[in-house]
Specification:
By secondary structure, this protein is an alpha/beta fold. The protein is built from 5 helices and 5 strands, in the order E-H-H-E-H-E-H-E-E-H. It binds 1,3,4-trihydroxy-5-OXO-cyclohexanecarboxylic acid. The site of 1,3,4-trihydroxy-5-OXO-cyclohexanecarboxylic acid has 10 residues, from loops.
Length: 150
């Protein structure tokens, strides 16, 4: 079965309480549960990992290929705008990746407009709140199914 890894970066463990006007009322736990259900319905398996620490995210990405992961779905949080090291980790493992943001960073402060991930992503989903994760899961499963047929 195709395996996806959903990664969330710093402060996303606070979803539900964190600036709900921007990020919505859903907790990360409920987002992960719905994403896993969506993956299962699409014939994929979803594993989830959140960390506030850059090195833990890097180590999780580095381990992903050996653990059978075929696709990354990644909300790097504020690391989106700062982390060349995480970008390099994604490039190093050569796994396809969809970048997800709950908010639309382009409609916010200027410093959020630069992403170190968008140009290496298969696609970017932003501004659609928690639904964006489910849409990314659906797209990732289809991408893997296309690859398996080809
Ligand atoms: C975010 C957007 C980032 O700019 C911010 O630092 C986050 C969350 C989003 O999901 O909208 O932590 O990635």
């Amino acid at each position: 079965m195709s395996r996806l890894l959903l990664l969330n970066g710093p402060n996303l463990n606070l979803l539900g309480n964190r600036e709900p006007g921007i990020y919505g009322a859903d907790t990360l736990e409920s987002i992960e549960r719905r994403s896993a259900e969506r993956a299962q319905a699409a014939g994929c398996e979803l594993e989830c990992f959140q960390s506030n620490a850059e090195h833990e995210l890097i180590e999780r990405i580095q381990r992903a290929p050996a653990q059978g992961t075929g696709f990354l779905i990644f909300n790097p949080g504020a690391f989106t705008h700062t982390s060349i090291a995480l970008r390099d980790a994604v490039l190093a493992v050569r796994l396809p990746m969809i970048e997800v943001h709950l908010s639309n960073p382009h409609a916010r402060e200027a410093f959020r407009r630069r992403s170190y991930f968008s140009d290496i992503a298969v696609g970017v989903v932003s501004g659609l709140g928690a639904l964006g994760y489910e849409l990314a899961v659906e797209a990732a499963c289809r991408h893997l199914a296309r690859g398996a047929r080809a």
